[in-house]
Design goal:
By secondary structure, the chain is mainly alpha-helical. It has helices spanning about 25-35, 50-60, 65-80, 85-95, 100-115, 120-125, 130-145, 145-200, 210-225, 225-245, 245-255, 260-285, 290-300, 305-315, 325-330, 335-345, 350-405, and strands at about 5-10, 15-20, 40. The protein is extended. Mean pLDDT is about 80; it is low at about 45-60.
Amino acid sequence: MPEFSYKATDRMGKIVEGLMEAPEEKAVINKLQNLGYIPIKIGAPSKSRSFSLEIDITAFFKRIYSRDVMTFTQQLSTLVSAGLPLDKSLFIVAELTEKGELQKVVRDVLASIQGGSSFADALVKHPKVFSKLYINMVRAGEAGGVLELVLERLVNFLESSQELKDYITSSMLYPVLLTGVCGIAIVILLTFVIPRFSTMFEEVGKGIPASAQFLMGLSAFIKGYWWVILGVVAGIVVSVKKYLATEQGRLKWDGLKLKLIVVKALVQKIEVARFARTLGTLIKSGVPILSALNIVKETIGNVIIAGSLVGIHEGVKEGEGISKPLKNANTFPPLAIHMITVGEETGKLDEMLLKVADTYEQDVRNAVKRFISLLEPALIFFMAIVVGAIVITMLLAIISVNDISF
C-alpha cells in the first residue's frame, strides 16, 4: 500500500504533518477529516520498493538515539513544569527539535493527542523510540495526575543512565585507539618494511635465522593473500554475531562473562545499578511492583541475571517481598540485598533502590577507572614487545648476513 505525506490543520489553526498509508489520495483526505483535521496538502505516494536499500541506509544515519530521547524529555519537562498544556509543549518541542526523524515522531505524538489519544497511547505507536519503561511511567503519571513529576523523574533516570554509558564509552576510547595504532604499526612493519629486506636476503636465505625467515614468509603471505585474511576475519565476525544473536549463544556468552573473575564483578555492578535505578524509578512513579519487575527484566542486559528475576517476580506475587527472592537468586551482591531489605522494612523501598543505584554506579566508575589504569600499560607493553621482537629479529638477520663468509 502506498504511503502519502500530508499537511493539515486542526480547528485551532495548528499545523500537523506526517505520513499515512492509504490506497489513494482521496482515502487520506477522508481519514484526516474523520480525525477532525482540515487537509492542506497531500504529497505524492512513496516510490517503489526498488529504493528500499537507499531508504534503509538513510534511516541508519538518521536513527534516533537515547541521547535524543533524553533531550526531548528535558525540554518537555521544562515546558510542562512551566504550566504549559501538554499539546502546546509538544508543539514547541517539535519546533525546537533539529533532528528530522525525531521531529516527525513528536509531531505524530502531538497529532494523536489532538485526535483524542492519551500521551502514553500516543507513545506506544513508537516502540523503537520510547521504551516500555518510558511509556509505563507516563501512563502512571497520567493516571495519578502527576505527569509533571513523572517527567522530572524520567529526566533524572535518563540523565543518570546516559552519564554512566558516556563514562564507560569515553573510558574505553583510549584503549581502543591504542589497540588500533598497535595493529596498524604491526601491519605496516609486515607489509612495507620487512619486504624491503627480502631482496637483500634472497641470495643468502639459508644463512639468516629461522625467525627472520618466518617473518618474511608471513609478510609474503599477508601481501599475497590479504583478501583471504579479510574474508576469513569477516566470516568469523559475522558467524560469531549470528551465534550470539541466538538464544543459546547469548546464554553461553552471558554465562561466560559471569565466570570470568575480571569481568564478573563489573557486569554484576552494572546490572545491579540498572536494576535498582529502573525499579526504584518505576515504583516511585506509581507503577505496581509486579508490572515494574516485568519491565525491569527487559532492561537487564545479561540474560542469566534477567532469568533470575522470574523467581523474584513469583516470590513477590506470593507475598515474600523482594529482598528474600533476591537473596535466593544468588546473582546480586550481599550489600545490595541488605540495602534493599532495609528499604523494604522501613517502607522506603523506592528511595533505597535509588541509593543502591547511586552506590553501584559509583562502584562501576571506580572499577572501570582501575581496569583502564591496568589495561593501558598492558597494551603499551604488548605493543612494545611485538614491535620490538620484529625489529630485533630483522637486526639479528642483518648481523648474521654480515657474518656470512662469501
